[in-house]
Design brief:
Elements (H helix, E strand, L loop, with lengths): L2 H27 L7 E5 L2 H6 L4 H12 L3 E5 L2 H4 L9 H12 L3 E6 L20 H19 L5 E6 L16 H14 L4 E5 L7 H4 L5 E6 L2 E4 L3 E4 L5 H14 L4 E7 L13 H7 L2 H14 L3 E5 L1 H10 L4 H13 L2
Parallel strand pairs: 1-2, 1-10, 2-3, 3-4, 4-5, 5-6, 6-9, 9-10
Antiparallel strand pairs: 7-8
C-alpha cells in the first residue's frame, strides 16, 4: 500500500472512530425517561376534512379512549376569520371538556401549526404588507394566550410548530427574531412552560433549542413519502433520537424533550378519498402502531403524543373498521392514560 493511501485510510479511520466516540458520549449524556407518558394530538380541521363531526369525534376520544394528555390547536383562521372579530368558543368548549375528564393539555398557538397546510392564517392576512403581517401575528398570539390562560387545564403552551423547519404550503418565513419576540411575549403573559418543536429525523434541533423554550418537541415518523422516490422507511434506531437529544443538551442546556407527533396513521401520497384501504393498512395498522410505540419508548422522551386519532375514528365511522380505535383504547387503558 502506498503512503498516500495509508494516510487517507488513517484519516478515514480517525473520523469514523471520533464520530463513534462522540455518538456514544451524546447517547450517555441524555438521561432517558423509563416510562414515558402517552397522549394524543387532536385537530378540529382535520376531523372536518375527513367528513367527521369534530365535536362528536372529540367527545368520543375523551369518553372512550380516555387519554390523560392532549395536544390541541388554536387555529388563527378560525379564531379571527375577519379582522378583530374574535371567536374562541370552540376551543373554550374543548378545554372545559378536557378539564372535566382530568386531561392535561398542550395548547398550540401561532401561525405554523399542526396539520396540512402547516401554515394556518385567515384569508385577509395575504393582503397585508410584511410589517403589518408581523404586527398581526404577534397580536394574534397575545389575544389567544390572554384569553385561554384562564383555563388551568392548559399545562404547556406550544409556540408555532416546526417553525425553523422548511415544510408546508405557502408558509411565510418565521425568522428567529420574530420567534424570540413571540417567546418573550408569551413569557410576559403567563408563567407556564413553553414548548417549541422541530422535525425529529430532518430537523437540526440546536437552533430551535437556542431560542430557549422550556421544552423541545420532536416528531417521529417511520414511513414517509417523497414525490421523487416514493415511500421511504427511515432506517434509524431509537438511539438516533437519544444521541440527538444528548448533543442538543450538551450544546444548548436543553433538558426536556417530548415526542409531539408519533406516527399512528398512514403518510398519504394523495388524498384519502383516492387511497384504497389496502394501501392504507399496509402503511399503518394495529401491529405497526404497537411497534412504533415500542420504538418511541426506547428514545427516552418524557411523553409521546400519537398522531392520527381522526383517521382511527374515520375508519370506525365511515368504514366500520374499529381495529385502530380499539387497539388505541387498549393501549391507553393499559398505560394508565
Amino acid at each position: 500500500m502506498t503512503k498516500p493511501k495509508k494516510i487517507i485510510l488513517g484519516i478515514i479511520g480517525f473520523i469514523v472512530t471520533a464520530s463513534f466516540a462522540l455518538a456514544v458520549f451524546f447517547y450517555l449524556q441524555f438521561e432517558p425517561t423509563k416510562n414515558p407518558g402517552l397522549g394524543l394530538t387532536f385537530s378540529r380541521t382535520h376531523a372536518e376534512y375527513l367528513g367527521l363531526d369534530w365535536k362528536e369525534t372529540y367527545l368520543a376520544i375523551l369518553n372512550d379512549l380516555k387519554p390523560k394528555k392532549l395536544r390541541l390547536v388554536a387555529y388563527w383562521e378560525i379564531m379571527e376569520k375577519e379582522p378583530n372579530l374574535w371567536y374562541f368558543q370552540d376551543i373554550d368548549e374543548m378545554l372545559v371538556e378536557a378539564e372535566k375528564h382530568d386531561v392535561e393539555v398542550i395548547l398550540a398557538v401561532g401561525l405554523k401549526l399542526p396539520r396540512w397546510p402547516e401554515c394556518h392564517y385567515p384569508a385577509w392576512f395575504n393582503d397585508l404588507n410584511d410589517a403589518e403581517k408581523r404586527e398581526r401575528h404577534l397580536n394574534m398570539i397575545e389575544m389567544a394566550v390572554n384569553h385561554f390562560k384562564g383555563h388551568e387545564v392548559i399545562k404547556i403552551w406550544q409556540l408555532e410548530n416546526e417553525a425553523l423547519f422548511n415544510f408546508g404550503y405557502k408558509c411565510p418565513k418565521i425568522d428567529k427574531e420574530l420567534l424570540k419576540e413571540e417567546l418573550e411575549l408569551v413569557r410576559n403573559l403567563d408563567s407556564r412552560p413553553i414548548l417549541m418543536s422541530d422535525s425529529g429525523e430532518l430537523g437540526r434541533w440546536v437552533p430551535t433549542a437556542n431560542l430557549k423554550p422550556d421544552i423541545l418537541g420532536s416528531t417521529m415518523y417511520r414511513v414517509v413519502h417523497n414525490p421523487k422516490i416514493g415511500y421511504f422507511y427511515y432506517p434509524l434506531p431509537p438511539a438516533f433520537f437519544r444521541i440527538k437529544a444528548g448533543l442538543t443538551e450538551t450544546m444548548t442546556g436543553m433538558k426536556r424533550f417530548k415526542g409531539v407527533e408519533l406516527q399512528a396513521e398512514p403518510w398519504f401520497a394523495s388524498d384519502i378519498a383516492v387511497t384504497d384501504l389496502q394501501t392504507q393498512f399496509q402503511l399503518m395498522n394495529p401491529s405497526i402502531l404497537k411497534d412504533n410505540l415500542e420504538y418511541a419508548k426506547k428514545a427516552g422522551f418524557e411523553d409521546h403524543y400519537l398522531w392520527g386519532v381522526e383517521w382511527w375514528y374515520w375508519l370506525a365511522q365511515k368504514k366500520n373498521d374499529w381495529g385502530m380505535w380499539d387497539t388505541a383504547k387498549s393501549i391507553f387503558r393499559n398505560s394508565g392514560g
